[in-house]
Amino acid sequence: MNKNLLAEIIKYPKLKKRLTDRPEDEARVGELLTEMAYTFKPQYINYMKVMIEKSLLKLYDSVDCGAEDETNWGKLVKDNHVIFVPNHQSHADYLILNYVLHTRYGLTPKVAGGINLNIFPIGPLFRKAGCFFIRRTFSSDILYKLTLESYISWMLKGGSSIEFFFEGGRSRTGKLLPPKFGLFQMILETYLNFEGSTQKDLLFVPVSIVHEFVPEQSSLTRELRGGKKKKESFLQLLKLYSVMKMNLGTVHIHMGKPIKFVPQQEEQDL
User: Fold this and answer.
1) Which of 121-135, 174-188, 213-227 has the lowest mean pLDDT?
2) What DSSP string describes 53-109?
C-alpha cells in the first residue's frame, strides 16, 4: 500500500471522523485502497495504444468520432472537474473510447472498472493504465463507501478526469439501461464537500458509443434467453481469439455537450 496515498485519503472529513471513533479501521482502509486504487504509469498508456492498434482496431472498418461542438477538450479538463459518462454495450467500449480520448485529445481519464475485470493478465495492465476497480455492490459496507468517496475526492482535487459507465453494466439489448446512481452521488457528494472554495465547475460529458456489431453478441443473446452470465476469467479471455476473425464494421463515438452541475442553492439564487 502507498503510505503517502493512505495519509491523504484518511484526511477526508467523513472518513477522518469515522477513524477518530474507530481507529482500528485504518488498517482495513489500507486494504481497500490496495484493492481499488490505480497504479498509473504513463508508459502503459503507450503499451495499451500499441496493443489496441495491433489487435482490436484491425477488427473494425473504422472508428467514427464526432462531437457536439468544437470543444477544446484539453482546456476543458484542465479548467474543470470533468466526468465522462459513456453508455455501455461491450468490453471494447473502454478500450476504444480511451484510445480515442488519448490519441485525438491527449486525455487519460481515470476509469472506474468493475472488480470482476481485476483478473490476470488484464487487471494489472488496466490498473497501470489508470483504471481503478470498484465492487458491484457495497451499500451495506460504510467503510468501503467512505474510502471510495475519499479516493474520488483525491482524484478530482488532483486534476484527474474520471470516466464511468452510468448503466453500471453492459446492455444486453443495445438499449440504454436504467442508470445506477451510486458513483454519481459520490462524485456530487465529494464536490459539494471540498474544503474551501473551488473555482472549477463540475461537468458531466455524455458519450454515445454505438457498435454496428457487438463482439460479445452470441453471449449477450444467450443471456437474454435466460442463460447464466459467465464470470470473467483467464479461460474466458482465451476465447476472445475467436473474435479476431470477425469484421465488426464501424464503431461510432459521439461526444455530447458538457452538462454543468449546479448545486441546488446556486440554482435558487439564479
Assistant:
1) 213-227
2) HHTGGGGSSEEEEEESS---HHHHHHHSEEEEEE--S-THHHHHHHHHHHHHH----
**Quick check: 168 and 180 in contact, CB under 8 A?**
yes
Q: Of 106, 109, 112, 98, give the one whose Cα is nearest residue 51.
A: 98
Using pLDDT thresholds of 50, 70 and 90, give the confidence band for residue 222.
Answer: low
pLDDT value of position 20: 96
Query: What's the rounded mean pLDDT across residues 112-135?
Result: 91
- In angstroms, what CA-CA distances link 130 with 134, 169, 199, 241? 13, 19, 26, 25
- DSSP alpha helix (H) spans, the chain: 3-9, 13-21, 26-36, 43-54, 73-79, 92-105, 122-128, 142-157, 182-192, 217-224, 234-238, 264-269
Residues in the chain: 270
Nearest partner of 109 among 122, 125, 89, 94, judged by Cα: 94
Q: Centre a 10 Å sphere on the Cβ of residue 45 and count the other Cβ atoms it contains.
A: 16
Q: Are 151 and 33 in contact (CB under 8 A)?
A: yes
